[in-house]
Amino acid sequence: MTDASSDHPSWKRLGELARSVANAPVSASQNATGRMRLMVAAAGARRIEPRVSLRPLLAAGLSAAIVGVAALVYQWQGRPLTYEVFGGQRFASNYVGAHASAPAKVMFSDGSEIDARPGSRLRIDETRSNGARVLIERGTAAARVKHRDRSRWVFSAGPFDVRVIGTKFDLDWDPVGQVVSLTLHEGAVEVASPVGQSHCIVRAGQRFRASLGDGSMTLENIADTQRVAVGRNADRAVASRSELQASAAVELTPTTKHHTVREEPRRKPVAKPSSWSKLVRRGEFQSVVDAALAGDIAATLATCSAAEARALADAARYTDQSELAERALSAIRSRFPDSRHSGAAGFLLGRVNETRGRTAEADRWYQGYLDEAPSGEYAADALAGRMRAVFARSGAEAARPIAREYLERFPQGVHLRMARRLAGQP
Amino acid sequence: MPSSPHSLHKTPVRRFPQERLSDGELVNAIVQGDSDAVGVVWDRYSALVRSVLRSSLGFSADVEDMLQEVFIAFLRGAPRMRSADSLRAYLVGVAVRRVMGELRRRRVRRWTMLLPSDEIGDVLPSHDDVEGAQVLRALDRVLDRMPARRRMAFVLRHVQGCEVSEAAALLGVSESTVKREARRARASIATRAEQSEPWLWEYLQRHDRGSDD
User: Fold this and answer.
1) Which of residues 364-383 of A touch B (CB under 8 A)?
2) What predicted TM-score, i.e. pTM, was given to this entire model?
3) Per-residue pLDDT tens for B99-130?
4) What is the ipTM of this complex?
5) By CA distance, what is A111's nearest residue in B?
6) A38 and B38: CB-CB below 8 Å?
7) If you write DSSP's letter for every residue of A197-229 in order, what string do you get?
């Protein structure tokens, strides 16, 4: 047992580790942005009259104060965002143009920011209490949108609408070439395509590019430059995120809606799968993922052992590569249905789906695991996973029977608190 | 040749660089409405306050917002500061109070929305030290289950390296309370690590034995 005395080396080392990360410097641009936000706030604060103490008002009557606060909250929630423009020029009240050699910055009252790169021109079409609509007339806008409850931001680039909840991205529109390019740094966005009825989800680390000229759309994984290229009328295929890591490129011809699969040249794995388990034990998760992605992943998963696939799945999960983890786990399920790895893979597929917000799929995998191994080593976690998934999808009432089952089967389980709440027990 | 009075009059007067002003002088300048002094205070203390917020709340995007709130609270409170030279302690004190409030709000949100503890915030940015990242994620999960005061006692003592007296002043409690809360936090971390956080447990065990590997 670790000594609880304050000067013990283990606490000292733990504190040093935490401090080293907490003290990590931010980028110069992030620091400059923070500094500028504060300066803007300071300039605004000087215009604010000294505040009146609320205490006498509270003493005058609690009910009046509640009504007042409620009115203020209502007013605040309904107030549209405001923004300030730094640098560049304003052609009209809502136009922002960056000079050819210098950027312009738009800072919104909720902390969201847009950098118009040199030569770019934006139009703030509309501001609401929970977001804004911004048109990129030309050039590149680097946006950092603050995540808020019910936030709703739309960036329009040509005929494309990028719907944002909270994220960081670069959006470029070339009105002459009719090409839009979107690079996601954080979060995820939905791109409404002018072709077809469906939407395309673009996630962090991906680049979306569409050309109206040749009717092509491309979704590219920036890290490994693997591509899924699709043609006109095929944006539904772009939305198929599971295909991003595929080694086969999916190509659709403009004239037909049938697709053909074209094999890419086979590539050999860089690091042998036989070493993956060892690398995972050493905590070198990224090395495993890099090695797998550098090679022909489909061929590797078709030939590697169950333990190697499991090692890849673990490495992918630990590095937040859910799609790769799902592929590796699915390979275990299909190739080694009778091995000890298969059951665990089923449970982990539940986890991966839950992480990706696919609660119905998660519930199905958890239930499958419980059917296969009612007393298996993950049974408690699988039941808790079902509890969460059903609660997320159908509410507390639907999750109650599962919570009761959990309490009955695992009275000392680690998810007791949640189970008790859902079961309505103290 | 001596300069004529006229040329002397035209010699520009260089402003004393604000970066070299003391904390007290900066606060006085801010109270007088000098906006450049605000930037100097930011340059001088934003990294420290960010570190306190990160070590207490993890690396969620909220940290940068809260950092702004701390400095805005300072701007509003500057005219009423008792000792302008205690700017560092003032800013850290505001940060600690904000963190305590945020931790309590998170608990309420978690309770009312039935969120599992690991759904709150990103603990770390991308980090090359995979084991270290896992250990700190585990530590954050464990700390997340503690009462706000206990968590902050641990963070101030062991992560920020505050003396007991300093931590007591920041938390507004006695020194014996800080010692007791930090001791309970350590015991709780050790117990939880052994039960459910293998990365953290292994790390503590390894350094418990004095090994540096």
Assistant:
1) none
2) 0.42
3) 988 888 777 665 554 444 443 344 455 455 66
4) 0.80
5) B65
6) yes
7) S-EEEEETTEEEEEETTTTEEEEEETTT--EEE
